Amino acid sequence: TKRKEKGLIVKGLAPKELKEFFIKRKVLKMKYTNSTLLSDVSICNGKIAIFSWGEKPVGYLIESKQLSEMFKEFFYQIWNKS
């Protein structure tokens, strides 16, 4: 709801086998691919957040404009092919 109020557009990539899971939620603009994806990575405002949701969840926040741009370029390469 907050994203919608602020006019934020969130895009995501997921494996095709998870399409039904995301269609029900309708909170993201999603595309689905057969490409190998990095899971649980978020990119925003020169920062990258990487999460692992295992037995003991772990997250890392990297603040780097250079790395952020590299991850965005990778994301859009797959986004544009999907």
Write up what this structure looks like.
- 33% of the residues lie in helices and 32% in strands.
- It has 82 residues and is α+β, with helices and mostly antiparallel strands.
- A 3-stranded antiparallel beta sheet has the order 3-4-5. Strands 1-2 form a two-stranded parallel ribbon.
- The radius of gyration is 14 Å and the shape is globular.
Strand order, biggest sheet? 3-4-5
Shape: globular
Oligomer: single chain
Low-confidence stretches: none
Helix content: 25-40%
Instruction: Give the beta-strand count.
Output: 5
- Calculate Rg over CA atoms: 14 Å
**Overall average residue pLDDT:** 90
Instruction: Give me the secondary-structure category.
Output: alpha+beta
Report the major sheet: 3 strands, antiparallel
The DSSP helix count reads 3
Content of β-strand: 25-35%
In angstroms, what separates the terminal alpha carbons? 27 Å
Order of helices and strands: HEHEEEEH
What is the structure about, briefly put?
With 82 residues, this protein is of the alpha+beta class.
Draw up the topology in text.
Layout: H1 2-6, E1 11-15, H2 19-23, E2 29-33, E3 41-44, E4 47-52, E5 58-63, H3 65-81
Parallel strand pairs: 1-2
Antiparallel strand pairs: 3-4, 4-5
